[in-house]
Amino acid sequence: MRLRSPAPLLALAAVTAVWGLTFVQVQDALVVYPLFAFLAVRFAISTAVLAPFAWRPLREMPRAGLVAGVGVGSILAAGYALQTAGLERTTVASTGFITGLYVVFTPLLVLALFGTAVPRSLWAGIALAVVGLLLLSGVPGGSAVGNALVLASALAQAVQIASMERFAPRYDPRALTFLQMATSFVGFTVIALALGDLEVPRGGTVWGALVVTGVFAGALGYLVATWVQARTTAARAALVFTLEAPFAALFGVLLAGEVLGWAGYLGCLVMLCGLVLAEPAAAATLRRLAPRASR
C-alpha cells in the first residue's frame, strides 16, 4: 500500500518533529519530577483531551475493537516502560540507536504475522535508515542488561506499529487512540503509585513538558499516526517514524546547545535519502518543491 498523496506522509513527519522536540523538554522536566509520575500525568492529559471526541465512536465500537485498543495500548505502555528502564542502565546513544531498530523488526513482523510483502525499495530505505541511525547515535555501548531492555522496547514498538496495520483501517481513529492513551494512563498510574512517586506537578518546566507531550505529542500525535496507518503499511510508517531521531538531534542543537558532528549530520542525510528512496510520495514532493526553490 503506497501513499499516493504526500499529505499523510507530511502529517506523520510533522508528528515525528513534535516527538523529537519533546526529548529536550522531557529531559529538563525529569530532573525535578519523577519519571513514572510524569508518564501518568502525560497520558492522563492525552486521555482527557481525546475523551470529548472519542466518546460517541467509543460507544459504537464493537467488543473486538475495545479489546484491540486496550491490547495495543498495553504494548505501547510496555514499550515506554522498557525503554525508560533500559535508559537508566545504558547510554543515551545506545538507547537512540537500538530503539530505532523497530524499523527492521516491523516489516519482519508484518511479513510473518500478516504476510504483508515488503518491496525491495523499502528494504533499501530501511537499510539506509539503520546506517543513518548508527552515524547519528554512534556504536552501541553501555551495559548488556540496559541494551537488552531497550531492544525489548524496540520490539514492543514494532509490535504496536504492526498491530496498527491490522486495526487502524477497521476502527475509528479517535476511539482507538483514546483507548491506547487511557490504557497507558492506567498502567503508569499504577506503577507511579506503587513506587510512591505520584505527586502534583509544579513549575513551568514540568507543566510545559506535560502540556506539549500530553496534547500535541500524545493526543494529537497518536491520533494523526493512527489516521495515517489506516492508509499505509506498517513498514512504511515505521520508516517515517525514524525521523524522530534526526529531529531530536536537531532540536538538541538548537535548544539545548548540543553539538552534532559531521557523522551526525551525515546520518540525518542518509536517513532522509532512505525515506525518499522507499516512499514515492516523498520523492514526488521533493520534485515539486525543487522547481519552486530554483525560482
Please characterize this protein's 3D structure.
Helix 2 packs parallel to helix 9 and helix 3 runs antiparallel to helix 7. The longest helix has 26 residues, at 35-60. By secondary structure, the chain is mostly helical. The chain is globular, with a radius of gyration of 19 Å. The chain has one domain (6-288). The protein contains 13 helices and no strands. It has helices spanning 6-29, 35-60, 63-87, 92-99, 102-114, 120-137, 144-167, 173-195, 204-229, 234-241, 244-256, 262-278, 280-293.
Question: What is the topology?
Answer:
Layout (H helix, E strand, L loop, with lengths): L5 H24 L5 H26 L2 H25 L4 H8 L2 H13 L5 H18 L6 H24 L5 H23 L8 H26 L4 H8 L2 H13 L5 H17 L1 H14 L2
Helix-residue proportion: over 70%
Let me know the number of strands.
Answer: 0
- What would you call the structural class? mainly alpha
Number of domains: 1
Q: Helix count, per DSSP? A: 13
The percent range for strand residues is under 5%
Query: Low-confidence spans: pLDDT under 50, at least 5 residues?
Result: 281-295
Average of the residue pLDDT scores: 85
Order of helices and strands: HHHHHHHHHHHHH
Distance between the termini: 34 Å
Largest sheet: none
Shape type: globular
